[in-house]
Design goal:
The complex is a heterodimer. By secondary structure, chain A is an all-beta fold. Chain A has no helices and 11 strands. In chain A, strands 2, 4, 5, 6, 9, 10 and 11 form a 7-stranded mixed sheet that branches. Chain A is globular and about 35 Å long. By secondary structure, chain B is mainly beta. Chain B is built from no helices and 11 strands. Classes of the chains: A mainly beta, B mainly beta.
């Protein structure tokens, strides 16, 4: 089954304690990205990756890091979490090819709800 | 970063009513996408539009790619309780990062 998995699904932590949220996809997709979702703000992109070892900042990258050492995995790292990073996080992946008739659909993971105290 | 203007922000309707929502942008897109997010889940693609003026249906859902390429509309006919959720539009421009720009969502509540 084609899917994007995230772990953990729920996390409560304290300010300053480093954490990593894992993301893995089994569709051999080249593109992966991280979003955060906050009430009234929709989905905002944090970082994206166009391929292995190729990452770039999205709209709200401050306080986050990512790595793409393997095609299937794209972990999100919070080196020193702060309360304003309390949010719902989604990982997504899509195939690279985007044509006028193709579906460059992003497949989303189930989400990770993070609370930073 | 750019965000799309999606309206309305929320809708409270009776079962059986039709629903309309739209997204507008200050810049053009090559693709418009409509997603639905159920509570506790990630967004799921409903309809993808690739050409200006295109009208596409998926069951009771119909979406249109605006002729100016700066807007899109989603209609849901004869709503049912399972239509409850948050609907997001997203615009995508080829030649860039291929990553969509999302609207802020329309929250739909359907009363039985």
């Amino acid at each position: 089954e084609a899917q994007v998995t995230q772990n953990p699904r729920y996390l409560i932590t304290v300010t300053g304690k480093k954490l990593t949220v894992t993301c893995s996809q089994n569709m051999n997709h080249e593109y992966m990205s991280w979003y955060r979702q906050d009430p009234g703000l929709g989905l905002r992109q944090i970082y994206y990756s166009m391929n292995v070892e190729v990452t770039d900042k999205g709209d709200v990258p401050e306080g986050y890091k990512v790595s793409r050492k393997e095609k299937r995995n794209f972990p999100l790292i919070l080196e020193s979490p702060s309360p304003n990073q309390t949010s719902l996080y989604f990982c997504a992946s899509s195939s690279r090819i985007a044509t006028s008739g193709g579906t460059d659909t992003q497949y989303f993971g189930p989400g990770t709800r993070l609370t930073v105290l | 970063g750019q965000q799309l203007n999606q309206s309305p922000q929320s809708m409270f309707i009776q079962e059986g009513e039709d629903v309309s929502m739209n997204c507008t942008s200050s810049s053009i897109f090559n693709t418009w996408l409509w997603y639905k997010q159920d509570p506790g889940e990630g967004p799921v693609l409903l309809i993808a539009l690739y050409k200006a003026g295109e009208l596409t249906s998926n069951g009771r859902l119909t979406a249109q790619f605006g002729i100016t390429r700066k807007d899109s509309f989603l209609n849901i006919s004869a709503s049912i309780p399972s239509d409850v959720g948050i609907y997001f539009c997203a615009g995508q421009l080829y030649g860039g990062s291929y990553i969509p720009t999302f609207g802020r969502g329309t929250s739909l509540i359907v009363h039985p």
